[in-house]
Amino acid sequence: QGSKVSRVIFQTPTDRWGKGILVSPTVAGNLMLGPSAIPLDSKEKEQRDTDTEELAYVVWAARRSVPHLDTSKALTSFAGVRARPSRGDFIIEESKINGFINVAGIESPGLTSSPAIADLVVNEILRNCNPPLPLSHKPLLPKEKEIQIQLSSSSLPPSPFFYFNPRRKHPVDYDKFDKGFDGRFGLTGDPERNIICRCEGITESEINHAIDGAGFPIRCTDSVKWRTRAGMGFCQGRRCRPLVQELVSKSLQKYGENIDAKLIPKRVPGMRVPERESRDVLSKL
What we know:
Distance between the termini: 16 Å
Number of helices: 6
Strand order of the largest sheet: 7-8-9
Structural class: alpha+beta
Number of strands: 9
CATH class of the largest domain: Mainly Alpha
Strand content: 5-15%
Helix content: 10-25%
Number of domains: 4
Radius of gyration: 22 Å
CATH topology of the largest domain: Arc Repressor Mutant, subunit A
Order of helices and strands: EEHEEHEEEEEHHHH
Shape: globular
């Protein structure tokens, strides 16, 4: 339903914590509703579950901005915990451990401030560590495809070269499949045309590129999801996860690890997963 709005819609803050419920379009064409905010004490800091009452409030408040939102098409719901700084400002400073930089308590406008925060950390804090830290970034692409970007400042020594490829291949648009694209679901045939995630239109080639470009072993399917959106669609990975498991298992063989695809976990081992309300709850709101 991302076409319903073209900009992030803010509400006037109320007596509840936060800036009100946002309605935000995403680059993938979806809508995000929320967040709400509830103060927690230290005993509840591990509480990351959603609940029916708060979901109902989010939907009610979002519909004040955008009426007729269809929550029966909701993909998922989630919650998190944000630490609030006691000093009333961002905490950006070197810790007692050399090279470990605290960037914490980043409240609004943290997203808007992120480029300036990154510049502060790289060009001032890291450069002044004692002893100084060598700044480097491992190239992830073949030498002939590397594009060198040098960050510089008139008052500081030149920054090291960072390598990256700004031209990412655009994901296949699933809506165009019936207009000439002959992709097939599965792992047989051309990786460029093998569709792994039907909901998001992600191909085998895109997933392999994301896995190989990580520069380190990928050990769970969520790592692929975060990089490619495979598993973020309506079925939430029920169809594509077994195929992604096979690709992850195959990639680990390059590191000398032979792990059966069925044993590849969804999430990083040991990661606590919050309980989430089912779509049945949202469909009734």
